[in-house]
Amino acid sequence: MSTGQYFAAGIEERPVVVDRVAELRWHALADDLVVGRGDVAHRPDGRTFLSINAWHGAVFDRLAEAMLAALPTPLYTVVDEAEPEVVAGWERAGFTVGRREWEYLVPTDPRLTRLDAARPPSGVTVLPVGEAQDGPLRALDRAVREEVEATAGWHTMPAEVLPRPEGTTVLYSSKYAVAEHNGQYVGLVRVAPVTRQPRIGLVAVRAGLHRRGIARALLARVLGELHSCGIERATTEVNESNEAARALFEGIGAQRCGGNLELVRH
């Protein structure tokens, strides 16, 4: 569903026809007028995500019915938790909550984050965004992925950092700051340079070096650089079940500003 007004009032009395107009797209038509659209996206991790754009619940339901009849499960979708009508539409189609991701606004001012005194632990050096070497960064990416798979599972990570077909989550090394220890990269922060409010897409430290202040030192460097460029806030998303990440960001003054639900139909 969306706020897009594809049709006038009275759609309830008009016959709606759903056509598959392309391999990954469906249209709902009433009197030859497009009153809703459904799309399919195949994510790099192999999962299939659906989206439906229809202002009327009946049209939404017709599109969902047609798409579900044509597609193999499991199927996924992501919705804003602040849109209960959209959530209800997917629930009518048999989807349930698979995970919840909270969105935070993160201040960059060291006086607010209290990161001005954060220093890397002894023997650790933080390289700023853009200075990471591609090879060692990809090696760290693989190591982190293996550690996540052995614990929470990589499926708990945000969609943007899920493995690509070639088996890496690193597309542009210029977006990363890294922590180096004894000649090896041991921690990273990914920063997407979105206009006005950059997004912190991933914070990760090798398992054997947790709770030593490396993540805080990485964030201190990244947020400090953003602040020096005149950027007051960044955004980030954290899985609701990731208590360590929530504590990390809330501990530097991040404020929750919304959230998304990933719904699944098996």
From TrEMBL:
CDD domains: NAT_SF (cd04301). InterPro entries: Acyl_CoA_acyltransferase, Bact_Acetyltransf, GNAT_dom. Keywords: Acyltransferase, Transferase. The keyword Transcription regulation does not apply. SUPFAM superfamilies: Acyl-CoA N-acyltransferases (Nat). GO terms for molecular function: acyltransferase activity. This is GNAT family N-acetyltransferase. It comes from Streptomyces polyrhachis.
